[in-house]
Every structure is written in structure tokens, then in C-alpha cells.
């Protein structure tokens, strides 16, 4: 703490763990997200080439998210048993298989569904990267460590910006883009193998029983709902925005990708901000505000379906808020489930993937059978409002039950103001006094 008080709190916080492992966790998460989001990034071109219906478009871009939810539990179990570094190295190599299949095959909708499902292995990186980073850092620095590692969801940005451009401008076609993605996967595998170290404190191999036991804990289900809304909303919307901008507003694949990238950039950049704000003000307080902002922005978009500039503004604000919410949720997870972070990350992460799966599927069904574009956004805004209401009503009980007041006598001696109950660490640890 003294180092933090003397001038460089962020650097001191990072040095409290293993920065090289934190960097490798970010890179692993980043390239995995890039791979995971490729079908969504190329969805306009794939849909045109395969003559997909509105329902098929929504369902195809949602299947990688379903695969991510399924494989996260598996990777979480394997990570606890064999160590997150070994599992991360293996999963990167396995990811090459569906990429190669899409490159050399991918000739039909049903074939791409199988490819999309196994691209979920990349999405399952969540259950490896976050425990790998978290177990290297003390409790008071969980927000910034988890935020930096989790910012790897910016890999979505690489996919939505570059993939359509490579396919159209450079005349590679979407098949070859999948093949090109193998190159950064191999590069990150080398860096991950070189830089990452297994954490000094690892979870004992547990099997499936702890997952079943945790399902009895009511708080876990709330975390699943909260993350299913924030992360599920983030990946679900960024997977579908290309289709929305193209079908609703008539934009080209490249223009739709660039606008989607703008939204992704805002959400990814602000995820670490959510962790830092959670450390400073308390994750529960942050979530209350964030859910209301999400509800308002998507309600306005869904009801009015405004012109392009206003649509971009509302969608970007909503996705930015979801990014902050992602960081805030996982600022809370290690504090409520500090001894079960690997198992809980797998379960909560799976819930996020499931949330992402249902959202584009809902958009596709509503568009296919009722020709409704904005109704899905209205439904999602009600879900976000419900989450914000729950957090607001239950916050004081949760703070009393599992967010005890930190030691404050040093601060009192120095005449500093008392910290709010939800904050587990003095503010100067994060902000330098």
C-alpha cells in the first residue's frame, strides 16, 4: 500500500501480482474473442453467399455464443485440475480446427452451424484467462486485474473492423479470412507459452460436484442473471449489429462492420473502468446505475428505430454501459466467491454465453415471423431494468452479508473520510491518495 501512496497506484497494483501472466491472459483472451466473433463479423457476407433467412442469420451468429457457454464449464473443470496455463495452451491449438474447417469447407448453413459450435471453444477462454489473472493478485487489486484481463473482449473489435475489409476490399472472401485467423492464434500461443506462469495458488481438482453444490446458492443465480444481461448483451448485440445495420439501414458489409466496431470499442475500453469504479464505489452501486442506463438507451432505440446518427449514438451508449457492467460484475465475483473463483467463473461465464445466444436468436425470430426490428431491444431493456431494480433493492443486505466494512483506522488517523461499506480497499490503493 505504501508504494501506492507514493505516486504510481496503478503500476503498484499491477506489480502486486505477475504482470507477464496478466499480459498473456489478456492476449489469450483477445485472440480467442477475435476468433469467437468471426462469424458475426462476416455474417453479412455469409448470409448473402448462402442465401440465409432472417431467422437463420440470427441463429447462426448466436451458435458460437452457445458453444462458448457449453465449453466454459468444461474448460473451468480442466483449468482447476491441470492448471489454467496448460488448458489455455491446449485450447488455442484446438481452436485452429474449426478455423481450418471454415476456411477449407463451410459450404452450407448446417456445416457452418457445426463450425460455429466449436468456435465456442475460443469463447470458453473466459474460464481460463480470468482465473489465471485473478489468482496472481491480492483481493484489493482484483478489480483492475480482472478488468485488464477481461478487456480481451476487445478481440471482437479486431474481428468486426478487419474481417469484412479483408474479405471485400482485398478480395479474399470470407473463407480465406478464417484461414488467416490461424496466424494470430499461433503467434499468441507462442507468447502465452513463453510469458504465462501457473498461479502460485491453484484450486484443488474438484470435479462436477462443486458446480452442483453451488447451484444451491441463490447469490450465484443472481450473478448469472446479471452477467447474462451485461456480457450476454455485449456479445449478443455485437454479433448481431452487422446484420441490423445492413438489413435495417442498408449499409454495406464494411460500413456495418466499422459501426459495429465503434460500439465494440466503447464497450471493451470501458470494461476495466467498470472494475476500477467497482473498487472505488462498490460494484453494486455501479451496477444499479449501469442497468438503468442500458434500459433507457435500448428502450429509446427499440421504440423509435431512429435515423442512423441517433441509432449509432444510442447503441454505442448502451454497449458502453454493458462493458462497464461486465467489469463491475466481475469485481464482485472474487469477493463473494473468493475460494471458488474458478468454478464460479465457469458458471457465470456460461450464463453470459447463454444470454448472448438467446438475444440474436430472439432478434431473428421477431424479424422472420413478425417483421419486428425494435421489439427485441424493448424486451432486453425490460430485462436490464429488472436487474437494476433487484440490485437496488438487495444492495444493503448483500453489503451486510458479504461485503463487510474494511479496516479504516489508518484512514481515520490521517483524517480521511470513511469509505462506503461496499468498498473493500482504501481508495488510495487504486487512485493514489
TrEMBL record:
It is found in: Membrane. One of its GO terms (cellular component) is membrane. InterPro entries: MFS, MFS_dom, MFS_trans_sf, NO3_transporter. The keyword Chaperone does not apply. GO terms for biological process: nitrate assimilation. Keywords: Membrane, Nitrate assimilation, Transmembrane, Transmembrane helix. It is a multi-pass membrane protein. Gene3D superfamilies: MFS general substrate transporter like domains. Signal peptide: none annotated. The chain crosses the membrane at residues 21-46, 58-75, 87-106, 112-132, 144-167, 173-195, 220-243, 249-270, 282-304, 310-329, 341-363, 369-393. Belongs to the major facilitator superfamily. Nitrate/nitrite porter (TC 2.A.1.8) family. This is Putative NasA. The gene is nasA.
